[in-house]
């Protein structure tokens, strides 16, 4: 299967103005910006079902399967029952936004703070959901895609060759490398919001990780000793980001709590 990752077309190349920003928020999408994971919803209701999906998820946790292989099996089970256009309409109709995200996004845009989605999901579904839930704001999205399968239905097209299908750290590393050349007091601050193990590599590239309450990412942070801040919804993140942006606290101080 071909991938879409091209080092010549990373965010720092396609959006070079981002390198000049003092703050950037990188965020996962499904289960972080949304209250329900759209891909899980599709799999549980129109594919293999909850029990079979959980069995695959458990195999990922025990490293019997890569996330990449398990996720493809889940989505392939949906593709035999629903067209991609039907899936897009289903998620627009059924998936809800985190109750605090729209206010959070408005604050960030008012402060010239880019919000960038890094997702293991599929860009057409993410774009449709964001358009429906927050309107036509310009939110850069780096994610997997979708294409026609050999069987004539549709299938996920992965961003890169990693075991996750999308190594989210690839989008952030050019920014962290660029800021190394700046004096410490002039270096931008990068935030990351996520809920799952696929967010860990990206979070390691940023200054403050917000890990969603009750999800797998917290367990991985605890086992690896990585600092993090628990969040229930984006109202928590907004308060903490404001404290950093407005100079009341540093990212390191917040991560310690």
TrEMBL record:
Pfam families: HAD (PF12710). This is Similar to Uncharacterized phosphatase C823.14 acc. no. Q9P6N2. It comes from the Eukaryota. GO terms for molecular function: phosphatase activity. Coiled coil: none annotated. Keywords: Hydrolase. Gene3D superfamilies: 3.90.1470.20, HAD superfamily/HAD-like (3.40.50.1000). SUPFAM superfamilies: HAD-like.
């Amino acid at each position: 299967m071909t991938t879409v990752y091209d080092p010549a077309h990373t965010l720092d190349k396609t959006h070079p103005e981002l390198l000049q920003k003092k703050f950037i928020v990188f965020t996962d999408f499904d289960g972080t910006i949304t209250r329900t994971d759209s891909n899980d919803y599709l799999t549980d209701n129109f594919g293999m079902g909850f029990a079979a999906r959980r069995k695959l998820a458990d195999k990922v946790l025990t490293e019997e399967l890569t996330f990449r292989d398990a996720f493809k099996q889940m989505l392939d089970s949906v593709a035999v029952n629903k067209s991609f256009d039907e899936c897009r309409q289903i998620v627009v109709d059924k998936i809800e936004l985190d109750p605090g995200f729209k206010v959070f996004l408005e604050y960030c845009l008012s402060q010239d703070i880019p919000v960038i989605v890094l997702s293991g999901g599929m860009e057409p579904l993410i774009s449709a959901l964001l358009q429906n839930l927050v309107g036509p704001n310009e939110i850069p999205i780096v994610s997997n895609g979708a294409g026609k399968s050999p069987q004539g239905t549709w299938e996920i097209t992965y961003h890169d060759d990693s075991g996750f299908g999308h190594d989210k750290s690839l989008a952030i590393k050019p920014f962290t490398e660029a800021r190394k050349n700046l004096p410490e007091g002039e270096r931008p601050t990068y935030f990351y919001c996520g809920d799952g193990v696929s967010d860990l590599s990206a979070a390691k590239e940023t200054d403050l990780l917000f890990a969603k309450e009750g999800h797998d990412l917290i367990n991985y942070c605890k086992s690896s000793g990585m600092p993090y801040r628990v969040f229930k919804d984006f109202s928590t993140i907004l308060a903490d980001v404001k404290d950093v942006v407005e100079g009341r606290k540093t990212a390191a101080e917040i991560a310690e709590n």
